Amino acid sequence: MHPLRKKRLTIVLFLVAGIAIAVGLTTYALRQNINLFYDPTQIAAGEAPVDVRIRAGGMVEAGSVVREPNSLKVIFRVTDFNESVPVEYEGILPDLFAEGQGVVAMGRLNDSGRFVADQVLAKHDENYMPPEVADSLKKDVAGQSSSAETTGSATY
Amino acid sequence: MWQWFHKLGSPKWFFGIANRLMPWLLAGGLIILAVGVVWGLAFAPKDYLQGNSYRIIFIHVPTAFLAQSVYIMMAVAAVVTLVWRMKLADVFVKAVAPVGLVLTFLALFTGAVWGKPTWGTWWIWDARLTSMLILLFLYGGVIALDRAINDEKSAARAVAVLVLVGVVNIPIIKYSVEWWNTLHQPATLKLTEKPSMSSEMLIPLLLSILGLYLLFGWLACIRMQTEILVREQRTKWVREMVMAGRN
Amino acid sequence: MAFDSFSAFLAMEGHGPYVWACYGAFVLLMATLMVWSLRRRKAAFDACRRGFEETRNTGRTAASGAQATFARVNVSQD
């Protein structure tokens, strides 16, 4: 290669590498701000600020959803299979909201450690399949219920 | 050894190759894209969780995928512009930037429309969506910068530097869903693992991606030809070709 | 076929507006981009042809006329 071109190529590579390092360090420093939500482990560890608008995300714990009969109020627990946080929400839930599904809730953590949400968004995973396949998978999992929780934590 | 490389850079040679490729790219792209989209819309089974709204994936993923690969191609062309000063590389960047802009916009738009029924919101400032919005601004910036500088050579260099600066955004888009907590789910199509999608849905999706790729090829050819015609209008070969009435 | 009827296909179990809005925007924008690119190429081609024809014509008149006008055979080709 022509020495001039070699020099130019070196400059270009240094330019890109330098910017990549700068951006990498910046995003690493800001990672807590880039994270969209706190997970239950972080909240349990006291990393999330109290009474500040934050987001909490995780999986809706199976069997934890309690709907109040005369209002739209719902109480459920959000878990990451390690810790769980009680969430209280009043309003219309997205269609995909269900036990065992991922959610991201926006709201404030109160003094008693309960998360009071004013918005609940559904989070889904990257798996797509027809209903029949999902049904047969569910049957398989029910057959070996002991492994259900471990597979659950892998897909959330 | 570098001879083929420089021949590749000849606008005249490219014009002829493009003329021969374009009918195939257009026909192949339209047919494959139509098959993929119709298959995805009407014949693929619905998703167990999202129902029919997931059918947006058959255009959301191809546009998002292309938007990123077009940027990577532009970055490679930018290196060629800066190191080898090859005109054709600069022609490519200028020709495809508007296509990349449209593809990125479509990816964001279809994503927003998909997000409403599934997540419950049109937009959220998570890392994936935000980095994709930055890609849109990068495309816009490339187009604006090119228009702002009149001198062809300085414009080419400035644009190439901007494209290269922006290329760090591509791994951020790709890995945002793994590095940070996002509302957007991780990738369905993976480079090394099996895709997490049933084959009845996967095949139309892959067809749509391939079809859109070919269609992009056609758009790139025709737009590069236009740019070459404008730049080389005083040369002998353009004169001969135009006067011969060949298109 | 994943749907029982054409109306079911359009409705998509309530998700129709979302799905069709996406496909509509996609077809509209891609078609516009393609037509615009085709037209631009044709315009560039025609501009070149016009430029060359003018050069040829003016070139002829210049050649048959006075030599002094030769310097003005510079044609805008935009």
TrEMBL record, chain A:
GO cellular component: plasma membrane
Keyword Transmembrane assigned: yes
Family statement: Belongs to the CcmE/CycJ family.
Name listed for the protein in its UniProt record: Cytochrome c-type biogenesis protein CcmE
InterPro entries xref list: CcmE (IPR004329), CcmE-like_sf (IPR036127), NA-bd_OB-fold (IPR012340)
Molecular function terms from GO: heme binding; metal ion binding
Chain sites annotated for binding heme: H124, Y128
Key words of the record: Cell inner membrane, Cell membrane, Cytochrome c-type biogenesis, Heme, Iron, Membrane, Metal-binding, Signal-anchor, Transmembrane, Transmembrane helix
Record function comment: Heme chaperone required for the biogenesis of c-type cytochromes. Transiently binds heme delivered by CcmC and transfers the heme to apo-cytochromes in a process facilitated by CcmF and CcmH.
Record topology, Cytoplasmic segments: 1-8
Intracellular or extracellular location(s): Cell inner membrane; Cell membrane
Organism of origin: Marinobacter nitratireducens
TrEMBL record, chain B:
Gene Ontology CC: plasma membrane
Superkingdom classification of source: Bacteria
Compartments (UniProt record): Cell inner membrane; Membrane
Transmembrane annotation, as ranges: 21-44, 56-84, 91-115, 127-146, 158-177, 201-221
Keyword terms: Cell inner membrane, Cell membrane, Cytochrome c-type biogenesis, Lyase, Membrane, Transmembrane, Transmembrane helix, Transport
One GO MF term: heme transmembrane transporter activity
Pfam families recorded: Cytochrom_C_asm
InterPro entries per record: Cyt_c_assembly, Cyt_c_biogenesis_CcmC, Cyt_c_biogenesis_CcsA/CcmC
Main location: membrane
GO biological process, one term: cytochrome complex assembly
Membrane topology: Multi-pass membrane protein
Segments forming domain Cytochrome c assembly protein: 4-184
Family the entry assigns: Belongs to the CcmC/CycZ/HelC family.
Summary of the function given for this chain in its UniProt record: Required for the export of heme to the periplasm for the biogenesis of c-type cytochromes.
Designated name of the protein: Heme exporter protein C
UniProt organism field: Marinobacter nitratireducens
